[in-house]
Design goal:
The protein is of the alpha+beta class. Helix content is about 15%, strand content about 35%. Strands 7-14-15-16-17-26-23-22-19-20 form a 10-stranded antiparallel β-sheet. A 6-stranded antiparallel β-sheet has the order 13-12-18-25-24-21, with no helix packed on it. Strands 1, 3, 6, 27 and 28 form a 5-stranded antiparallel β-sheet that branches. A hairpin with a 4-residue loop joins β19 and β20. α2 packs across α3. It is globular.
Length: about 550
């Protein structure tokens, strides 16, 4: 995980896109005459995903002899599992989404945005369109919130906000010439940003946020007692002297004398005003990190805060770790975090002997104190420490901890079997949302949206005879293939049955409530639905 941050991020993204590929391959097999999912590629995808998730990553001399052929070749083989899975997910998604767009009666260049989650959602997507052109929502006729990411000779890449994409469905955007050129956002060097939801004071020198006041309540979310700002990059040295209990698990070895280096020497690149909100960019440096860029995205119409840390790192083989700090102003919160099929309270739900030094979470973590809760969603890095960084103390009890959350993005503490060093470019993304009382359904939805990207397909020039010639059976504006109710029932996957007879819908209950789930689809008929076990055997009546 932290020992190979880039591969961990890719594997984490691929697992979610594998699910989307499975869902839309199923939808395409029902909606598109003659379409069949690719079982060989699907099996290869899941095999590679599982191999990526296996415990041991590298050779048994990966740290003592990282340049040996054994270490290099085994490392390359392990990395290839993840890249193979990513390519398989790309292939399956392109095939399924291409088949579906062929049934949508729109002209070429129409962008179709797909949502694999079982509720309607908003989300940012990126697409390349010709210069001077932009996507228009076919349902509303409006230009979406957007920003230019980059441009080439004949195109520009736009990041735009697709709103209310239907559950397990799609929404169409026509690409049309703009009536007037896209004007660059207005830039300032002000360090205070105000939206209808938040007031934030930037700390350009550290690349973080010094103050975050929620305007509806007046609450300050950054603990001023912390030596670190929110979103600040931390680099840790000092674990090289052996024996120590951080590198070699032991309750009798000494604790290493760690040194924490906070990012510094920073500057404000700019604060840019868009019609829909603000984008702020800061640059800083740290030990072995010549460049750390922090990007903050604040929409006027949403309380969700998006934070991205992109960095360049030199590869070193001395013992190291890196974190992104989130010192929330919660003196003694109750923590909960998502697991595969639910959530746990690490202070009460862990078995004796479980690790309480760091935690591996799924979509979200919630820190709750009284009537204030912070929902925190790490997109790329699943490890987290609570109250302090990892020091090798191996506590037997969780105890009382403050609201300082550390995203544990990188380390090379493991003696063997993992990478000896990490270098190059990395990116870590987070969604944060202040709330009142903890709501597991809200947390599940925010975390699922953070980790499950909307997918984009374009109706190509070769897919249509000309404007208006398409005669597909699907709606030209938007459509849904599957709906699930109530809100505390969530779709895990929709897949072809292993015995080939029909499809399987898997649901998970996320709110802690008993009840009945309702699943609706044009291809599901009463009387032809039966309950099965997790391995798809008929459930005894």
């Amino acid at each position: 995980l932290a020992a190979h941050a880039r591969i961990t991020a890719l594997a984490r993204a691929t697992m979610r896109r594998a699910r989307s590929a499975e869902v839309f391959s199923t939808a395409a097999s029902l909606a598109v005459p003659g379409f069949e999912a690719d079982p060989t590629m699907t099996a290869r995808l899941w095999e590679s995903v599982l191999a990526t998730d296996e415990h041991t990553w590298h050779a048994d001399v990966s740290v003592s002899d990282p340049d040996s052929l054994q270490s290099v070749r085994q490392g390359e083989m392990r990395d290839a599992r993840t890249t193979d899975a990513a390519r398989a997910a790309d292939h399956l998604l392109a095939r399924a989404l291409g088949a579906i767009t062929g049934e949508i009666p729109n002209p070429s260049r129409t962008l179709v945005v797909f949502n694999s989650l079982s509720w309607p959602r908003d989300g940012w997507v990126e697409a390349d369109v010709p210069k001077g052109w932009a996507p228009v929502d076919l349902a509303t006729g409006a230009l979406p919130a957007l920003e230019r990411v980059m441009e080439g000779n004949g195109f520009h890449r736009l990041r735009f906000l697709a709103r209310q994409v239907p559950a397990v469905g799609y929404r169409c955007f026509a690409v049309r010439p703009m009536s007037q050129p896209l004007t660059p956002p207005q830039g300032t060097l002000a360090t205070v940003i105000e939206t209808p939801h938040h007031r934030m004071e930037l700390s350009p020198g550290t690349g973080g946020i010094r103050s975050w006041v929620e305007r509806a309540t007046g609450r300050e979310w950054v603990d001023r007692a912390s030596p670190w700002t929110l979103g600040q990059h931390l680099y840790v040295t000092g674990a090289d002297a052996l024996p120590n209990r951080l590198v070699q698990y032991s309750t009798v070895s000494p604790e290493p004398q760690l040194a924490l280096h906070g990012a510094g020497g920073g500057r404000l690149v700019g604060v840019f005003r868009h019609p829909w909100g603000w984008v702020a960019r800061m640059e800083a440096t740290n030990v072995h990190h010549p460049r750390i860029e922090t990007t903050l995205v604040l929409r006027d119409d949403s309380p969700v805060v998006e934070l991205r840390t992109e960095l360049e790192k030199r590869a070193v083989r001395t013992k190291e770790a890196a974190y992104v700090a989130f010192p929330f102003a919660l003196p003694a919160p109750r923590y909960r975090h998502a697991t595969q099929n639910g959530f746990v309270d690490p202070a009460h739900d862990l078995l004796p002997g479980a690790c309480r030094e760091w935690f591996c979470i799924q979509e979200w973590l919630a820190a709750e104190q009284g009537s204030r809760t912070m929902l925190w969603c790490p997109v790329d890095a699943p490890l987290v420490t609570l109250g302090d960084i990892a020091r090798g103390r191996w506590p037997r009890e969780f105890g009382e901890r403050n609201g300082w959350v550390f995203s544990y993005v990188m380390s090379n503490y493991t003696p063997e079997g993992y990478r000896a060093e990490q270098g190059g470019r990395f990116a870590f993304r987070y969604l944060l949302r202040p709330s009142a009382a903890f709501d597991p359904v809200e947390a599940h939805r925010l975390g699922s949206e953070a980790l499950t990207p909307l997918e984009v397909a374009e109706i190509g020039r070769n897919d249509r005879l000309g404007p208006g010639k398409g005669e597909g059976a699907l709606s030209p504006e938007s459509g849904s293939f599957l709906g699930v109710e109530p809100a505390h029932a969530s779709l895990v996957t929709w897949k072809k049955a292993e015995d080939g007879r029909g499809t399987v819908v898997r649901l998970v209950e996320v709110g802690g409530h008993h009840g009945t789930a309702r699943v609706a689809s044009p291809w599901l008929r009463r009387g032809l639905v039966e309950r099965v076990t997790a391995v798809e055997d008929p459930e005894p009546r």
